[in-house]
Amino acid sequence: MFLRRLLLCLLCCGTVAQADSPRVLINTTMGDIIVALDDARAPVTTANFLSYVDDEAYDGTIFHRVIPGFMIQGGGHLPDMKEVESKDEIINEADNGLKNVTGTLAMARTNIIDSASMQFFINVSDNEFLDHSDQSCTRAQEQAMIEARQRGLNKPVTCKTFGYAVFGKVIEGMDVVHDIEIVQTHISMGFPDVPTEPVVINRIRRLDND
Hints:
By secondary structure, this protein is α+β, with helices and mostly antiparallel strands.
């Protein structure tokens, strides 16, 4: 009886936690996507993303990089491929235990660990190679490699990527995500994998929790 009550309690608590998580509506020219954000395990990333949402900074941007079987990336370019001005870069929370599985929302970045700012992507496959792991480079190892390259030294890389920070998951609209995934692409302004017909993010807005 005690174990049954404990299980029911855990299930109820889990439901409440999910219901209380911030949700956003990504309204695109191809349909709506609803995402639940994980502010408990990715507080910095979630707060950063919501700051852009509240500033309406994503309005009119596009999904500018679409690779079938991999991901769709957006939030940083306009239809003419002009880059949108972003805020400061944030700390990488890829070590939060969340994985880059199908339907998850993660931050895009350069090869520098803590370089994410505005652009995000939605995984359309289980992309384990994007996850943080015990074999991931530390910040000290990465800095040493950067400094070595600046001196003209190309030492073998002995560690894996630090990872890409997951901070949410699509809860409605994966059909829209997959529709975007298979649009025709081309090279535009030197950028590969750009949809031939722009997939515009009309707006991203918070949704009130029920």
